[in-house]
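User: I'm writing a tutorial on reading structure tokens. Could you give me a worked example: one chain, its sequence, then its tokens, then a sentence or two explaining what the tokens reveal?
Assistant: Sure. Here is the example chain.
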Amino acid sequence: MVEKELSSMHDFTGKLLQPSTRPVVLEYLTWRRAVRAAAAAGEAPPALPEIGPISINLDLTTACNYACDHCIDWEALNIAVRHEEEELRASIVELKKRGLQSVILLGGGEPTLYPGFGNFVRFLKGMDLQVAVVTNGSRNELIAEVADCFTKGDWVRLSLDSAEDETFQAMHHPKGRGIHLDEICERAGAIKAKNADVSLGYSFVITWQGSEREAGASVVENLGEMAAAAKRAKDAGFDYISFKPFLTRAEDGAEVMNPSQAQREHERLVSDIRSGVDAAMELDCDTFRVVESINLRVFLDGSWENYRRQPGVCHMQALRQVLSPLGVFNCPAHRGVAKARIGDKASWSDASAMTGTAKLLNTFDASQECAEVTCLYHSVNHFLEGIVSAGGPLEVLLPEMDQNLDTFL
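And here are its predicted structure tokens:
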């Protein structure tokens, strides 16, 4: 097998140690220690300081022009809830005051279907925020129109999950004429042509026979197209292809990995996926990267069940949240789940989300609520928990790292 270091895009601990992010993390950890000291002394906990998440997933809309068989947000699509533009902008302004540094536009629906998508992207960049867009690629021309305002470190990732148009159509069921894989990849090139600083990614969720989004809703297998998809991405001028395993939703709504659905033995499934990764990795070079997600890395090395063992407190829910038309939620893995709801969609516009954040930090037991989740933030959560629990000065336990990473969490 070709060995490869985990991509810097998944180095969440490193991202929190940068000069731009570390002050917020220090303030948060100081408060968490004070909360525990107050509990030990039988005293009321101190109020959450005037901080907010460093990074958010912003679901601009629930509208989508695809009907993907593997969509994790299927039940939240095309429902009659939406943001109020003024309210949404007020939330961003308030979050920026509290330390917000990056926004990922994705989730729920297709972000380019949001009315005024381009104007909102320019608003975010005018707030000096890092911005990323996850899109289905059907309206790349709208992203190309605002590509000039993106800055180095910003990225656009297309959810394509295939190498052949026949597979693409079977998986995504695009609504409308002229939505084909060749045309999508060609139009994606216009984004890079407008601004070479934009990092352009090709997302590939690996699916296998037997996978189900929900009972009775099977998905199309694509794992045989991994290497061919990497070649298509490289030939089309993408900067990287990102592979991740298919996730489904547990009964409690959490996003979980469930390889037991496969119609082939687990060892055979791992071997087939590893072969696909290795073949794709042959195309990895200085100008084109083949990226394995954390979930895929631990799935392949057999440690994925260890990543279900979370500390009692999910510290990342204070530092990274989801803002959607359905409300504010503590994690992308619990998007739309009632028990993970911090507040309504406007709760950051008036800072009432502070109350919900503080409450969930004390009541949401991640060791139980996330017991089935193979968590992307497993390592960084245990790192932060170790600092809160340890004695000694935070300045020493949380060393500042002068490195050039983005702030997307």
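What the tokens reveal: The longest helix spans residues 22-40. The CA atoms of residues 35 and 46 lie 6 Å apart.
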